[in-house]
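Quick check before the chapter quiz. The format below is the same one you will see on the exam, so make sure you can read both the input and the output lines.
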Amino acid sequence: MDLKVPEYAYMFGFLQADGHLAKGAGQKGRLTVEITVRDIELLRKFQKLTPYYSSITERTRTTNFSKTHTSAVWSMCSLEARTKLNELGLPYGRKSTTIAPPDVEFSRCDYLRGILDADGSVGYTSQGFPFISLTTKSTEVAVYTSSYARENTGAERTLKRNARDGIYNILYTKENAQQLAAQVYYPGCLSLERKQIAADSLGRWVRPAEMERRTPRIQWTAEMDRILLAAPTIAHAAAELGYSPSPCQNRGWKLLHGVVPMPD
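Here is the expected output.
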């Protein structure tokens, strides 16, 4: 399970989001992953990647969404395998709020694709715009996702749990979604086939000529804050910083009223 290898990094991200480690008596236990049967081929690929005995079964049951939902279940009992996964950061039992990117070196885009394939969505909005979204209860995963997207697309997101169920909903649309999809769902990568197809389709979208681009959010630094505070007027600060007066005035108000910290 060398997470520098793209396939293992992807697999580990998927297991963190959609797998379950259960302990039994003594050294007994089991890793299970249950997904819709249409995605069973991914479990077969996981099985080939794993040098321990494992099994894939199917079951049909009633769910909140369907009276006859058929799923595929991958199961593995090896103590050595379970110990390795646990050491890398796959907890036993409930884990939705505690999972985090591994502490060891790992393939970043492949790990993120595993998270997105398990807990994310890729496609088009009702308005016809490309999108990639992720829902997670883990603060560490939310921070990692937004950080990766910021570094590779420039898109900035403010992370906040929703009030209803405490979940982070992170959304990227239009060109940001296209750039992120091209980075994460590259040709030939291990992924859910249906999401790979959806990600590939995002590149075909072209912004209509009449659709205006939203001005990117200003990334304020301590040095920019010092220039803003030292300027005799907002107009002087805006001219020196190269921005319009309105965002400079808003930032100044936040600094003076303690909404954001003063620069050191």
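If your answer matched, good. The radius of gyration is 22 Å.
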